[in-house]
């Protein structure tokens, strides 16, 4: 009730200020008594609150793409529409002078600014923690709507939710450092007496809570940022690291429903025992302890409810924002945002399907067989689906828990060397490696000292060429070979613009001299790689996705090694380990086996293809004898160009049709609005305000379209 009263007062103040500031809008002239005017403003405030609560979400539901496309400018149109609806609902209270379209849009913009400021002061926009963990009921139904990869309704809903959450937290942080903070905190306690409001929190903690409030997609983004701890202040690192473990759980009822739907029976029937309290809660799943009928102790990982719908919606919204940004700004295109987004989206999408994780676990278990000190949990396929995965229960502590490791008598330096050896085997030799080896995903069994790999949803893969190139990069960094480093990076990078390779070589040489050759301490990947990657972005270069994941995995490994054994140089140890493996590969028997294997493969290829080669040779001879020798040309590039021309023509036709429709709406509504009503008796059933509204919308859309066309022409000319 207190919230409603304060909301009405704030809206009334906003309406009063808007009417006072906007020159073309006034109260009805017969409202002269002060008490009546005060009552009128309260009525207008109540009406505006209802419009904003009921109509605005519906408008955003169908115009979310326009908001992104216009970089937020379309919100002025929405604000104007809200104020225009207010004038329609209260025709005897508000008077809009001619030309109405100008004053309505201006009033909408002023109203939006005033409401935002007053909400910030009175704490109406305070971020509130929802600790129920329940998924909104409508996501399940929205997930059933057709739409293939794109569900516009979901995307628009998520766009509104993400915008509201970011706005609330941002305003709370900004007001918290002003003299108005005390009054805002008082109003928060008054308005939200029974809810947990985010107040008086440090900016790092507020951002961490905001990412949790935004949902799994943004929690995953925060985890990726936290993994680059060398780039973060200590306080920010500590808070964002909590995203890897301190995530709010969802109710057991949801987990029970998902398990029953996926496995065909409730958990109490599938398992001998099943603990209802979650063993762990992660950004995209929740884990429960259980026992199989055969007696094995297992953990059951259950995907968060309806996460598939919301995450895909989030990813498409981010794609739309980045695509629009790259169309508008050359620096965004040069920075390669779209490539980074696609890399992130692919990683997250793979983690949504537990069948991928099951495959990854089986493959990694096989490749790690040669190490008796490495454990990968066994997957139980009959109790696993795309949303539920059951795996062997593995005990242990985080690999960075130094006190527990020391108490168990484990040699941390030897453990660090073993971990380097394992990661080198995965990355440099197998080309199949853990893509996110942060402390929560790597455990140590205290009794045996074994290294345990968990959470295998994101794995990286490298080709033979990429593996050799990665070793080339590591080798070049260790020995300060800037020329070879530049050549390797250029070979593995996509180019977004023309670059001066000689200038790039000089810049990389300066970085290598600073961070490697003339450094006071042994070179660290976490010092050199981020600077080099930033330099590549400046030059319009972007490394291959799989190669970037490999570097990220190596840097995370270095961070773990630094925690275990600060005196141990990861770069030196990694090169030593790879050199040992290479020398092993150069033994005579290994070379002989390799040559034998490739010789047999080549012979098999010749035998299988020999008849086809004979027929082709005979056909060529016949063509030469008859003088009709045919040459086959690859026209794929020509087809691509034709397709591009066809797309351009289609865009031009669509633009022409849109322009004609807008002009038709504009002229038609204007003519109808100016015609005498008695001559339009066939339209008597349509309110006159509808014509004005159509005219406003058509005029605004036409203006936006013309400005976009001018900007596009200027951009094409610049290119």
Helices, strands, pairings?
Blueprint: H1 2-21, E1 25-27, H2 34-69, H3 74-89, E2 94-96, H4 100-122, H5 137-142, H6 152-175, H7 181-191, H8 203-214, H9 216-226, H10 234-241, H11 252-263, H12 267-270, E3 273-274, E4 280-281, E5 285-291, E6 297-303, H13 307-328, H14 330-335, H15 337-352, H16 354-367, E7 374-375, E8 388-392, E9 397-398, H17 402-407, H18 412-430, E10 432-434, E11 442-444, E12 451-453, E13 459-461, H19 464-479, H20 482-491, E14 493-495, H21 501-517, H22 525-538, E15 541-543, H23 545-564, H24 570-585, H25 588-626, H26 636-674, H27 688-718
Parallel strand pairs: 7-12
Antiparallel strand pairs: 1-2, 3-5, 4-5, 5-6, 6-8, 9-11, 10-13, 11-12, 14-15
Question: Which labels suit this protein?
Answer:
719 residues, alpha+beta, five-stranded antiparallel beta sheet, four-stranded mixed beta sheet
